[in-house]
TrEMBL record:
Gene3D superfamilies: AhpD-like (1.20.1290.10). It comes from the Bacteria. This is Carboxymuconolactone decarboxylase family protein. Pfam families: CMD (PF02627). Residues 42-101 form the Carboxymuconolactone decarboxylase-like domain. Coiled coil: none annotated.
Length: 184
C-alpha cells in the first residue's frame, strides 16, 4: 500500500467505529479498512453505505457481483476482483462465467460478451458495467434492453452497485491497496 496500514496507535479512532467495521467484516479488518480508517468521517460513511450496497439490496446478488467483477477487471483493481470473484461464485455464478469476463481486458470490453458461458442477461450486465466504467455514458440500446429485464428499482440498484464499485476501484488502485497476505 502506498500509505501505512492504519493502527490505533498511529491514528486513534473511536472504538465504536472500529468495532462496527469489524462486525461488518466478520471480526477482522481488511486492508481496505486499514486505508479508510485514516479518516473517521470517510470510514464511518463508507461502512454504512457499502453495507447497504453489499447486503441490503434485493436486486440479484449474482448479477451485481458479475458487474462488480467487470468493473474490477476494467480498472485493474486486483483487490476488488480478489474479494468479489468468490462472492460471485457463492451467489450462484460459475467459474466459466468468470473466465468469460477475461474478454473485457483483452478486447473491446463494451462489446466483448459473445462467450457462450454468459447468457443474454449476463452479457447485457457486462456491457452495461463496461460502458459505465469506460465511457460513463451508456448507449440507449443497452439501457433499453436492461429495462426489459429489470424494474426501475432494480435498475437503480444495479447502477448504484456499478457506480459504487467504480469509486472503490479508484480508491484501491490509487492507494495501491493489495489483497491481504500479498506484498504491495
Amino acid at each position: 500500500m502506498r500509505i501505512p496500514d492504519w493502527t490505533p496507535e498511529a491514528h486513534p479512532q473511536p472504538a465504536e467505529l472500529v468495532n462496527a467495521i469489524r462486525a461488518r467484516r466478520g471480526g477482522e479488518l481488511i486492508n481496505l479498512d486499514k486505508a479508510l480508517l485514516w479518516s473517521e468521517p470517510l470510514a464511518r460513511g463508507w461502512n454504512v453505505y457499502l453495507k447497504a450496497v453489499r447486503s441490503e439490496l434485493p436486486t440479484s446478488l449474482r448479477l451485481r457481483e458479475l458487474a462488480i467483477c467487470t468493473v474490477a477487471l476494467l480498472t485493474g483493481a486486483q483487490y476488488e476482483y480478489h474479494h468479489h470473484a468468490p462472492d460471485f461464485l457463492k451467489a450462484g455464478g460459475t467459474q466459466a462465467e468468470l473466465d468469460a469476463l477475461q474478454c473485457v481486458v483483452k478486447g473491446d470490453a463494451r462489446r466483448c460478451t459473445d462467450d457462450p458461458a454468459l447468457g443474454e442477461l449476463e452479457q447485457l450486465v457486462v456491457r452495461y458495467a463496461a460502458q459505465m466504467t469506460l465511457d460513463v455514458k451508456v448507449e440507449d440500446a443497452v439501457f433499453d434492453a436492461l429495462r426489459r429485464h429489470f424494474d426501475t428499482t432494480q435498475l437503480v440498484e444495479l447502477t448504484s452497485s456499478i457506480a459504487t464499485y467504480n469509486m472503490v476501484a479508484r480508491f484501491l488502485v490509487a492507494l495501491g491497496v493489495t489483497p491481504e497476505g500479498e506484498a504491495a
